[in-house]
Design a protein that fits this description.
The chain is an alpha/beta fold. The chain has 14 helices and 9 strands. This is Acyltransferase family protein.
Length: about 375
C-alpha cells in the first residue's frame, strides 16, 4: 500500500494531456486573427452571461497580430544547393562539323531538342557516324555499287545477307546511305531482341535509330516513309563459319508479308568481305548465354575484332510485289525465293569485284616495289 504522502502528492498534481508543441519540444504557436476588414461575429468577444438577455455591448476589433508559423508546424524545405553548370548547346570535340551538317540535312521530324518520335537524337547520330566514317573510309576499304537504286525519299526496304560474326554489314550499309546519298538518309535496322536487354547497347541503338525487331515497329516506320533495313537470315546468318561466309541460310518470310501489306519496294543488296574481316572458326553458345547473346564468335586470334580488309556492297534495282500480305505460304515462299536468288547473284558480283580489286592492289604493290628497287616499271624491265 502506498504511503499517505505519495497519494496526496498525486491528487494535488493530477496528470494532464500534453500539447503538440510540448511533445515536439518547441514554442507554442501564436494565435492568428484576421485584420479589421475581415472581422465577423465569430471574432467578437462574447458578452457575459448576465448580458446575454439584453442588448450585447459592442466590442471593438481585437488588435492585429501578425501571423507567425510555429517552428514545429513549419514545413521543412530542402537546402538550397548550387545549380550545376549546363551548356545550352553542348559541343563535342569528337564530332566533325561536316557530319553535324549532314545530320541536320536528314529529313526526319526532329523536335526543338533534336529528338525524333522514335527516340533518335542528333547528338548520338553525329557521334555514331563520326566513328563509322573512320571505319568506312580509313580502316576498311569499302567498294559501293548501285547506291543510286536507293530512293532519296519515301518508304523502302533494304534486304540483304549477313556476312561476318558481328554486324559489320549493317554498319556499312547505314554509313553508305548516310554519306553516298544526297540528301543523306538514315537506314534504320531491326536489332535483335537480346540487344534491348544488354546494358547501354539497347539505349545506344535506340538513340541511333536502330530499334528492336518487332513487326509493329517496322510497320510504323514504313508508314512514316522511313528507310528500313532487314536481314531475313536473322541470327543464323551471323553464325556462319568461315567456309560458309558467302552462302545463304534459310530466309524468314515476315519481311515479304510486311512489304506487300505496306506496298513497299524491296531493294536487295549483297555484302561480301565480312567473313574475311571476322573469320569465325567456332561459335561459343555457352559463353553467349552468360553474356545474354545467342553466341560469341571465336576467331583464330581469339576475340572477334575485325581485320582491315576490303568489303564490297552491291545494291540492286527495286523489286515490287503485288498483294495484301495475307496470301498462302506457298505464294509468299515463292516471292521470298526470288529475293534470295537476287541477293545470291549480288554476292557473286561482289566476290568478282573484290577479287579484281585485290589482284589490282597486289599488282600495284609489286609495281611500286619494283620501281623503288630498280628505278623502273615492269614494262621497262621487260
Amino acid at each position: 500500500m502506498q504511503p499517505i504522502e505519495e497519494r496526496v502528492r498525486q491528487d494535488a498534481f493530477p496528470p494532464r494531456r500534453l500539447e503538440l508543441h510540448e511533445l515536439l519540444h518547441c514554442r507554442p504557436p501564436l494565435p492568428w486573427v484576421r485584420s479589421d476588414e475581415s472581422i465577423t461575429s465569430r471574432n467578437r468577444r462574447r458578452p457575459p452571461k448576465s448580458r446575454r438577455n439584453g442588448q450585447p455591448k459592442e466590442v471593438g476589433a481585437l488588435p492585429h497580430i501578425p501571423r507567425v508559423i510555429s517552428p514545429c508546424l513549419a514545413p521543412r524545405l530542402p537546402p538550397i544547393l548550387p545549380r550545376p553548370l549546363r551548356l545550352e548547346k553542348p559541343v563535342s570535340l569528337l564530332i566533325d562539323p561536316e557530319i553535324a551538317a549532314r545530320v541536320d540535312r536528314l529529313e526526319l521530324p526532329f523536335n526543338a531538342y533534336g529528338v525524333d518520335p522514335y527516340g533518335t537524337t542528333k547528338q548520338h547520330l553525329a557521334r555514331l557516324f563520326t566513328v563509322f566514317r573512320f571505319l568506312y573510309r580509313h580502316y576498311f576499304t569499302v567498294g559501293v555499287e548501285g547506291v543510286e537504286h536507293v530512293p532519296a525519299r519515301g518508304r523502302a526496304m533494304l534486304v540483304g545477307n549477313h556476312s561476318g560474326g558481328i554486324a559489320i554489314d549493317g554498319a556499312m550499309v547505314i554509313t553508305s546511305c548516310f554519306f553516298e546519298l544526297e540528301p543523306p538518309r538514315l537506314a534504320q535496322g531491326m536489332a535483335e531482341k537480346f540487344m534491348a536487354k544488354t546494358p547501354f547497347m539497347g539505349l545506344l541503338a535506340t538513340r541511333s535509330g536502330q530499334l528492336t525487331g518487332l513487326v509493329e515497329t517496322a510497320e510504323h516506320l514504313l508508314h512514316d516513309e522511313r528507310l528500313l533495313m532487314i536481314f531475313p537470315e536473322g541470327a543464323r546468318g551471323t553464325a556462319k563459319l568461315y567456309p560458309e561466309r558467302n552462302t545463304l541460310v534459310q530466309f524468314g518470310s515476315g519481311f515479304m508479308r510486311l512489304a506487300m501489306k505496306t506496298r513497299t519496294p524491296i531493294i536487295p543488296f549483297g555484302f561480301v568481305g565480312g567473313g574475311e574481316a571476322i573469320p569465325t572458326i567456332a561459335n561459343s553458345y555457352a559463353l553467349g548465354k552468360l553474356l545474354g547473346a545467342p553466341y560469341v564468335p571465336i576467331t583464330p586470334w581469339g576475340v572477334a575484332l575485325p581485320a582491315p580488309v576490303r568489303l564490297e556492297l552491291t545494291y540492286s534495282a527495286p523489286m515490287k510485289f503485288e498483294g495484301t500480305g495475307t496470301e498462302e505460304d506457298e505464294v509468299i515462299e515463292g516471292y521470298v525465293e526470288q529475293v534470295k536468288q537476287r541477293i545470291a547473284g549480288l554476292i557473286e558480283v561482289g566476290r568478282e569485284r573484290r577479287r579484281k580489286a585485290l589482284a589490282w592492289s597486289r599488282d600495284a604493290e609489286d609495281e611500286a616495289r619494283i620501281e623503288g628497287e630498280t628505278g623502273g616499271t615492269k614494262e621497262e624491265q621487260r
